């Protein structure tokens, strides 16, 4: 990749360790990577190899023990709260277990609208229009928006998780094993959806 093009995301020598009853456990050891606009980067590894830990560090959900993360050239890891909040508005995250990331008391519509309300986006009518637009992009029928998480299939919930992650039109989306809990046929649908969204949103 040309040095003249600025990396969207850059991680330098990230290391992370946690305390346990057996002492310190090193979850990551000096991981570096670069991601440029329009690129897709996949991290492969066995269960417990640190993939989810890396996602938490890259998304600034926790600070690294060593190293740094930069987004558009600005240091994000360990940044003040207001700078991290600004970063959170620019990224989307899809977690490994989508059912656990939705409030069971809320309809799907309310869950998708929540990021818009938190960020004071538009009027109620404008928020509704964007929820409907995003649902259509991710292959969710409008009638599903009135359902609760317990009334949705795994594939529908994963589409909903993706919809929520992209509704603020982020520069970058993190996905933590987005197809791991799905049937093979549904896995292909979700992967194709992600490819289509990347082409559509750039």
UniProtKB/TrEMBL annotation:
Entry coiled-coil feature ranges: none
One GO BP annotation of this record: transmembrane transport
InterPro entries per the UniProt record, alphabetical: AAA+_ATPase (IPR003593), ABC_transp_ATP-bind (IPR050319), ABC_transporter-like_ATP-bd (IPR003439), ABC_transporter-like_CS (IPR017871), P-loop_NTPase (IPR027417)
Family label: Belongs to the ABC transporter superfamily.
Keyword ATP-binding: yes
Pfam families linked: ABC_tran
UniProt GO MF annotations: ATP binding; ATP hydrolysis activity
Protein name per Swiss-Prot or TrEMBL: ABC transporter ATP-binding protein
Keyword field: ATP-binding, Nucleotide-binding, Transport
Domain of life of the native organism: Bacteria
Domain spans labelled ABC transporter: 9-200
């Amino acid at each position: 990749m040309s040095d003249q093009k600025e990396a969207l995301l850059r991680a330098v020598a990230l290391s992370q360790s946690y305390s346990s009853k057996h002492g310190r456990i090193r979850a990551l050891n000096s991981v570096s990577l670069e991601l440029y606009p329009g690129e897709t980067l996949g991290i492969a590894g066995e269960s417990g190899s640190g993939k989810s830990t890396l996602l938490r560090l890259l998304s600034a959900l926790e600070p690294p023990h060593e190293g740094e993360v930069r987004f558009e050239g600005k240091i994000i890891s360990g940044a003040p709260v207001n700078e991290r909040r600004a970063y959170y508005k620019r990224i989307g995250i899809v977690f490994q277990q989508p059912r656990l990331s939705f409030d069971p008391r809320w309809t799907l519509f309310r869950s998708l609208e929540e990021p818009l309300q938190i960020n004071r986006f538009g009027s109620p009518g404008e928020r509704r229009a964007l929820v409907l637009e995003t649902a259509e992009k991710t292959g969710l029928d409008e009638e599903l928006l009135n359902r609760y998480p317990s009334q949705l299939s795994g594939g529908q919930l994963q589409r909903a998780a993706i919809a929520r992650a992209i509704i603020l039109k982020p520069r970058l989306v993190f996905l933590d094993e987005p197809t791991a809990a799905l049937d093979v046929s549904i896995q292909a649908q979700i992967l194709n959806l992600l490819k289509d969204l990347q082409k559509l949103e750039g």
